[in-house]
Write a structure and sequence with these properties.
By secondary structure, this protein is an all-alpha fold. Helices cover about 65% and strands about 0% of the residues. The protein has one domain: Four Helix Bundle (Hemerythrin (Met), subunit A) (Up-down Bundle), CATH 1.20.120.910.
């Protein structure tokens, strides 16, 4: 591995990615529950309550989209770890700094490449 990470750092980052994965799956379950179609009794629920319900569902859909993207990124990072490619920038090939990976452990690119996008 050319990433410049120590074995302890890799182990720490793997544990963090796995922790994020577990937390994310739990959150996605709650989000899916929120996205279930709401059944409102139109005769007993006011217009504002219906609007509030629709807004909450819209926010839950947006959250679900972000969770799906994050899940894909975390799974991809774990796959890079398994292949021995984790910690190498997918754009320039350089090392991704440990500090960046502690903040964004799923990141496939270094800070320099991220700033140039």
């Amino acid at each position: 591995m050319e990433h410049g990470l120590t074995a302890d750092q890799v182990a720490l980052l793997r544990a963090e990615l796995e922790r994020i994965l577990v937390r994310l799956k739990k959150s996605m379950k709650v989000t899916r529950e929120t996205l279930r179609p709401a059944t409102l009794d139109q005769t007993s629920v006011g217009r504002l309550s219906r609007i509030d319900t629709l807004q909450n569902q819209s926010m839950a859909r947006n959250l679900g989209d972000r969770e799906e993207q994050k899940l894909a990124a975390v799974v991809a990072a774990l796959a890079r770890l398994d292949r021995g490619e984790y910690g190498n920038c997918s754009e320039c090939g350089g090392a991704i700094g440990f500090d960046r990976l502690m903040v964004f452990p799923e990141s496939p690119i270094c800070q320099r490449c991220a700033l140039s996008d």
